[in-house]
Predict the structure.
Amino acid sequence: MIDIAILGCGTVASGVCRLLKQNHEDIAKRIGQDIRIRYILARTPQKAQALGFSDDQICSDIGPIVADPQIKIVVELMGGTTTAFDSICACLRAGKHIVTANKDLIAERGRELFELAAKHGADLCFEASVGGGIPIIQPLKQSLSANRFSEIIGILNGTTNFILTKMAAEGLSYDRALALAQELGFAEANPESDVMGTDAARKIAILASIAFNSRVALSDVYKEGITEIDDSDIALARRMGYVIKLLAVAREVEGKVLMFVRPAFVAAAHPLASVNDSFNALFVHGDAVGDIMLYGRGAGSMPTASAVVGDVMEVCRNLIHGGCGRMGCECYAQREVVGIDELESSFFVRLRVSDRPNVLAGVARAFGEQGVSLSSLVQSPVRDGTAELILITHPARERALRNALAELMQKDYVSRIHTFMCLDVADEEE
Amino acid sequence: MIDIAILGCGTVASGVCRLLKQNHEDIAKRIGQDIRIRYILARTPQKAQALGFSDDQICSDIGPIVADPQIKIVVELMGGTTTAFDSICACLRAGKHIVTANKDLIAERGRELFELAAKHGADLCFEASVGGGIPIIQPLKQSLSANRFSEIIGILNGTTNFILTKMAAEGLSYDRALALAQELGFAEANPESDVMGTDAARKIAILASIAFNSRVALSDVYKEGITEIDDSDIALARRMGYVIKLLAVAREVEGKVLMFVRPAFVAAAHPLASVNDSFNALFVHGDAVGDIMLYGRGAGSMPTASAVVGDVMEVCRNLIHGGCGRMGCECYAQREVVGIDELESSFFVRLRVSDRPNVLAGVARAFGEQGVSLSSLVQSPVRDGTAELILITHPARERALRNALAELMQKDYVSRIHTFMCLDVADEEE
């Protein structure tokens, strides 16, 4: 019998309790011992009672949990970066092992927590903090640990992926698709963290730290959300054989780490293009294994519970067979980070220009002067006497693109940069 | 320093040696110790010399390896089910841990090996035996171990997937696509094991044993290969919005296990449809996590080496931190297996019939009498005065389909069952 405590009483905690009960028999057979939830920490006891806990199991503060030597594993499902941090530290100091789903905490205060865990020889598992139930952390740190990674590319936010899927599938505007997402529970009342790309940025920072063995921060991630995407962009992309996805990318550039979250054109035949609705995926390129993709539900009570309980079972195996603390933090490299200007990619650009002589020449020259080679250029008239220029560049440095666009914005014949996205940044190996 | 020995000197062994050298520094940093190949067992010393080994490292028999207590891990890359079996047993009895890539051995003699490993508290890792470098075994046994699985669906053979991809992409006949595959090294001179579905069947038997915690055998897997697939089937599928893939499926049917390998219609929008060329993928449905897909290169020297060395590193962690034998065989259930007749699916049927009155009625009646409901039926004339009938059924039991087709083959107006495949068997959850 292995006693655990759960901190928190929300959706994920509810899923974890349900899963431990539902699959109790198989879980016990697989690890060789029963798992018992000895305590649950709840701000309001009624929530814990609603989950079926009795008064002797319900705590309103962490004291009894820290003090009880029988409690081996503490599952932190409170969220937030202050009380959760203090609670985890108290538990680690008391010799307990930690399983958490707390992405914000790992992204922002991971270093301190991993150091404290290592000091106490404790496990600190966080599979559930990125990608819900999809096995991501364990494959990166274990199955694939013989590889050097050159790039990881993710669709890591279910809200934005749902919105973009609906815009593409049903021709909805961004606002209508967001409203639908909120209605169906795929977006929150305040969707900012999702639609601005912040959620995805936190996740890619965590994954990049693992993939590149270097601690990197949220502030190192260039970030653009989906709020400026037009359904006309999506329709254009489809005609060209692409879909638009909000990609979270961490890539090695000359030994340094470049990270960004931004909408991008993905070829329809690429596996990432078929990742739809609220599904997530991580595409990884390792020097031995080549391209790998891990796909599944990135959020939700039961998928997240699957990751949490999977981690609890792993800690149980360590307790039973020995090996606690075997998977520590491996940020031994101190790679520098570089900014978005260093990104090398093809780009898709849509400009609104005056429909008169020499505009095309002027635009082409602005790119040429920056060394940006154009792969295709289409001009179409717009009803109001202006014209739209759609360009695809050959691979070029972002800095060169931005310089060219800045130059063009000075011209009186360019009224607007409608769209500027990277294209084929998720190129499959040959 | 952890000493290992490699048995075998072929493509995978070459990849393993190369990878251990190439990523030596990162591997050592990640596990905290160096890995040294102390011995290599080679039938001809020249092959080992070509890989850079010196005479004192090259063995022609397993004696020195078994006898040396410093050797902690033995990597079996010989293949085959006799000498490899004996070698592994000798090493396990001598207290060594095993990493293997030997699918045939695990599929056919796995039970004995796992029992012997458990008896000696030894690790027996086999990630590389299924799906090359794709993390599959570890996610199923660890990350996802809180789940009960209802179904696993794989594209597990790169040769056949390459052939089917080329037939679809380039309109090649089966024979031409096979020849191309052989030319490019994606198919062997004798491709039988691949194109008859045997390779995929072995793999799904291994995965089903894990997913359903029940030892199942190759002989329990219903098997159809790709040799009868027509490029006209593929073109028809495309027009209907499908692709044809050789699927390896293990599914729970009323508590029992049903397994098959057969060509099937997969909806173009399904993630499995975008698994092309020699890539493999495994689609898993777990009761907590929902749908997960793991995708990557299922074969090749370096991808397979990635899985082998990943396992070696895992055993090293166990040696260093404690925990050897932590991941044993978990076949605690003794589920029965059922045959293909119990499969419930939609089906695609193509019949060649005489073009005369009452044929359509007769065909419809044959299905109706078996309780098979038709979703769509298209009749088209063929140049020679016959007609082709293309039917899609609603979900029905395979037994009913086979009964209906057997009945129809008795009729003088039915000359041929051109095609009979399941359709939408890889249905995504809503």
